[in-house]
């Protein structure tokens, strides 16, 4: 390169000198300048000598090739959960690499060892989790299998990616039903315990005796002392019934006797009215037993009339009208003897006329 530059530059100087007509002394000066430029060009192009000669260096560092990673996809592998017979379905892409070993190491199947190592690591995670949390367990497996780790033999390093974990639809529906049943059972158990506690509170505490019942009522109505006094008899009945006992003699005078029906004054306590008795039952008729008055009183009591009812006279007058319309003169006489004569305006034009149908 230095010679080439010197030749080219010399030709340029010769052409320039001939064209301009340099004097004789200019030619030696141009030759000296050309020599200086050649030396400078030569030094600029020549590199610095190496501090350590190349021939004494060892072989240069070569870049080792990266170990080749291989992968295999596995799908629908059953992994156990914490509940028997409910298995997860596991899918993933297993990747592995084989580190350097000694020359006499036995031959291995790296794919088999890698898949087995990943499944063992995944099994250790899923076996501790319930089957209804497959989405949560999948994220756990992403973290547990996301790092290259050696297997138990130390011959390979394996990891997994694209992890998928789910539960079959049939098992998911079955678990949902069992969960609903357990929830309903828990609610029912709490309700039963609440009812049992309430019964124990009322029976063993509130209604243990009459005094306790009165104190309980006063604690809830502390400003109604007179009301508590008026309810002593009722509370005595309640406490006696709650303990299957008779009313204490000291409270018997505060308990009101049961009100008897109007018809019980004339008839027996268990004797039904004549119109409620089945035919041929052998029950004596009013004429054979208690007389017409008792039958009439029972009939009025069945309608709900008390002896002092102000509407009783009006009802008797209407009975007389109805009896005359049907030609029952003996019934009319009995009602008049029982309640007295009726008003004339109620019976005019009725006797002897046929009864109109009642709607």
Task: Give an account of the 3D structure.
48% of the residues lie in helices and 9% in strands. The termini are far apart. The radius of gyration is 60 Å and the shape is rod-shaped. The protein folds into four domains: 2-46; 70-100 and 108-167, Tetrahydropterin Synthase, Chain A; 177-254, no CATH class; 262-347, no CATH class. Helix 1 runs antiparallel to helix 2. The chain has twelve helices and four strands; from the N terminus they run H-H-E-E-H-H-E-E-H-H-H-H-H-H-H-H. It is α+β, with helices and mostly antiparallel strands and 359 residues long. The protein has helices at residues 2-20, 26-45, 110-126, 134-144, 169-206, 210-220, 225-230, 232-242, 292-303, 312-325, 329-339, 344-347, and strands at 70-80, 87-97, 149-150, 157-166. It has a four-stranded antiparallel sheet with strand order 1-2-4-3. A hairpin with a 6-residue loop joins strand 1 and strand 2 (87-97).
């Amino acid at each position: 390169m230095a010679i080439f530059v010197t030749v080219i530059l010399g030709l340029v100087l010769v052409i320039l000198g001939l064209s301009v007509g340099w004097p004789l002394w200019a030619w030696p000066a141009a030759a000296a300048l050309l020599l200086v430029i050649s030396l400078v060009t030569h030094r600029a192009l020549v590199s610095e000598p190496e501090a350590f000669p190349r021939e004494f260096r060892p072989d240069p560092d070569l870049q080792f090739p990266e170990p080749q990673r291989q992968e295999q996809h596995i799908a629908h592998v059953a992994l156990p959960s914490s509940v028997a017979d409910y298995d997860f379905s596991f899918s993933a892409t297993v990747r592995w690499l084989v580190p350097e070993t000694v020359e006499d190491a036995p031959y291995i199947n790296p794919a088999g060892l890698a898949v087995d190592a990943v499944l063992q690591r995944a099994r250790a995670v899923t076996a501790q989790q319930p089957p209804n949390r497959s989405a949560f367990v999948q994220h756990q497996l992403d973290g547990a299998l996301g790092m290259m780790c050696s297997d138990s033999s130390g011959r390979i390093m394996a990891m997994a990616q694209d992890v998928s974990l789910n539960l079959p639809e049939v098992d998911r529906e079955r678990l949902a039903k069992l969960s609903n049943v357990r929830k309903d059972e828990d609610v029912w158990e709490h309700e039963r315990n609440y009812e049992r506690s309430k019964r124990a509170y009322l029976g063993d505490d509130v209604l243990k005796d009459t005094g306790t019942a009165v104190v309980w009522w006063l604690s809830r109505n502390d400003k109604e002392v007179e009301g508590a006094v008026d309810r002593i008899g009722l509370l005595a009945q309640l406490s006696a019934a709650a303990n299957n006992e008779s009313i204490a003699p000291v409270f018997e005078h505060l308990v009101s006797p049961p009100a008897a029906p109007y018809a019980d004054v004339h008839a027996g306590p268990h004797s039904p009215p004549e119109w409620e008795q089945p035919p041929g039952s052998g029950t004596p008729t009013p004429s054979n037993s208690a007389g017409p008055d008792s039958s009439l009183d029972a009939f009025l009591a069945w309608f709900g009339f008390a002896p002092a009812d102000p509407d009783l006279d009006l009802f008797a007058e209407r009975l007389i009208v109805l009896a005359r319309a049907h030609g029952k003169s003996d019934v009319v006489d009995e009602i008049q003897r029982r309640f007295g004569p009726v008003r004339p305006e109620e019976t005019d034009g009725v006797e002897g006329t046929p009864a109109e149908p009642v709607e």
